[in-house]
Amino acid sequence: MNQNLLLKTSMLHLVVSAISVAACAGLVLGTRLPPALLVILLAAVIMVCTGIFYVLHHILKLDNEKHASNEKQQLQLALDAAGECLWDWQLADGSTSIHFSQPYCAMLGYEQKEFAQNQQGWRQLLHPDEREHVQRRITKLFAEGKDNTYENTYRMRHKNGSYRWIHSRGRLFSENGKPVRFIGIAADISQSRENSERLRLANAVFDSTHEGVLISDANNIIVFVNRAFSNITGYSYTEMVGNSPRILQSGRHSKEFYAEMWRSLDNKDSWTGEIWNRRKNGEVLPQLQTITQLRDEHGLITHRVAVFSDISLLKNSQTELSFLAHYDPLTSLPNRILLHEHLKLSLHRATKNKARAALLVIDLDHFKIINESLGHAQGDELLKQVVSRIQQVTDPQDTLSRFGGDEFAMVCDSCGDGIKAANTAEKILAQFRQPFSADQQDIFITASIGICMYPDPSCAEEVFRYAETALSKAKESERGSYAFYNTELTETATRKLRIASELRTAIDDNQLVVHYQPVYSLTDQKTVGCEALVRWQHPHNGLLMPDEFIEIAESSSQISTLDSWVLHHACLQAQQWLQQGLPLDFISVNISSRLFDRKEFFTYNLQKALSESGLPPQRLELEITESSMMDDPEQNIELLHELRDLGVRLAIDDFGTGYSSLARLKFLPVDKFKIDRTFIQNLPQDPTDLAIIDATIALAQSLNLMIQAEGIETQEQADYLMQYPHLLAQGYLYGKPMPAADFAAMLAAQQPSPNSPQ
After folding, report:
1. Do the domains at 322-485 and 498-746 have one common CATH topology?
2. CA nearest neighbour of 537 among 234, 739, 327
3. Prior bond to 725 cis, omega within 30?
4. What is the DSSP letter of 414?
């Protein structure tokens, strides 16, 4: 029974009893009492009853407080057991103090005595990013002025500096529209939140991976499959869960296979291998699969996880991959790998049988031009025609292979001596004398062949290298020919390698020097300029001419550095002569064909050389070969315009030996043509050379260009060229390349003396 109700009932009983006592007293006395006495008696009884009521109320109050205290203790014990932490905010008197229980404080790493028991202290522990949000939620709750529930999740700073996720629930009590009490519980949910995030990520991985995933329990009953599993096998999630993995068996594996798989699982808790399963539609499915057993803390198996990938495409393409690994996909010929295997076998047979055989390396000449002009599709078709023609004239026992873009090799077991090898090469080259068909037009191409006889050398790598060396010799001598490897070629190649290595230090060691060859004006009968020509003062081999190391510098990627060095020294020397008052119109510097491959590098060094030397740009002439201009005319013409914008002069060297288009010549931003020495050496006897010179000079005059003839060695040649006005001449007749001091002396000697008549 409610204690208040008990108290009221007891009071009523006391009043009724008092009245009854008064009535009984009148009856006992047998007389009617006076009203006044009756009132006094009733008052006395009520006073006694009031005293009794007061004592009873006090007793009940003490009992209520004890009961409430017990209930509060029981509540706290229940909250502690549930991992919940109590907070209590008394608002009736406008207080900001908050009671935080000991578990609440411990949750954040504090003792209760050191934890701020107020709103401000609690607020400071909130994460800065969430502080305003939480405060707005509470303020809005208070403003509504009615009882309401509260729930929120936020981060609070632990004593160790970390942040914990806190989930808080509570209730607001209000009276007359004003909050009077805000009480609730809180719990640290950091771990559960982390676990949830991990679970979410795991589910995302399972759902997004391309590998199929199957999870079974300890009894090998499927409990989970991912989306990729269904996509690969055709079985849905509902079809697989509750079933056994045996549903996937293809029947291709023996009992021993599965027994070995289970032994591995028992011993290692894992198995990896290829397995053939079956899709829902009956198709056999090759898989690369890994099975892992999961155990609990007691070592008992709880689950098995199988992860597999579909290797159908891999299995279906194994034959193709094997083919691609050893054969050229375009021509179906053996590739470089298989070529070396055939060569090794041929070497073994030749050595064993004391016989001779040959390796022929075949390279198509200028095939790059065909690809660029006709396109790669037509180029590929042309290569197929080449293969067909070679196979028509070679022995079936010989092995033809393609090991590069336009490079082929043939292992010729049938070539027992050099004569047979030469005959085979001649037959192959004869096939190139007839035109090929590409893009509905006849195409003429040539090939060069390098030949190495073996088994001496007896190493496949050496045989191949020697054949390529012979190929280089064939290309140097005449396109469309063949050449044999010999010892002399090896020595030459070795020497080139040594020079390339030594050239790297030659510049730093000041071994390079510049000589200057005069350029003579036939009209003015005096030296007006010079050409700077590099020499290498080798410490052991003496003075080396450019033809001994320039080509090597180009092939070893050192030519840009060499060009820059010559350019720098030539500009410095020319400016020094000008400052000395020597009559010099220009100095000419040869530029390698590799200029166009590194144009930014060269332009930078050109500007640097002009700036550091102080030489006026119009005094510098750059010589560029005609053939290098035609490799990529549009891009190269653009570069020439950039050089002209710097103010330097441009000359085309060896004019007439290249294949320049007359249509392009008129767009070249050049100042001079240099007639190659091959057209000068037979003057004036050769009528063909005379006609070429006349045409070249007429062309230059029509384009308003200067003309310079090089290679003049006789007076007879000079006398013939005198008929052309403003012609410049260069050659041994006017001076060989000489050191700077000698050239300066030549310039000084042709100056008039101060006392001579002007």
Report:
1. no
2. 739
3. no
4. T
- Token duo for residue 740: 């700077």
pLDDT exceeds 50 at position 22: no
Structure confidence at residue 487 as a pLDDT band (50, 70, 90): low
Strands 284-295 and 301-310: antiparallel
CATH of 84-193, one of 3.30.70.920, 3.40.50.720, 3.30.70.1320, 3.30.450.20: 3.30.450.20
Rama region for 647: left / alpha / beta (φ>0; ψ in -120 to 50; rest): left
Residue predicted with more confidence, 534 or 37: 534
Class at the top of the CATH hierarchy for domain 498-746: alpha beta
Residue-range domain boundaries for the chain: 3-76, 84-193, 234-316, 322-485, 498-746
| pLDDT exceeds 50 at position 101 | yes
Mean pLDDT in residue range 551-566: 83
Q: What is the pLDDT of residues 699-713, one digit of tens each?
A: 888 888 999 999 999
The model's pLDDT over 205-250, given as tens digits with 9 standing for 90+, comes to 777 778 899 999 999 999 999 999 999 999 999 999 999 999 999 9
Verdict on whether the full-model pTM lies above 0.90: no
- Closest listed residue to residue 690, CA positions, set 675, 702, 700: 675
Distance between CA atoms of 611 and 732, rounded to whole angstroms? 33
Q: What are phi and psi of 284, to 5 degrees?
A: -80, 135
Structure tokens at 108: 């954040």
CA distance 735 to 377: 54
Note the Cα 16 to chain centre separation in Å: 102
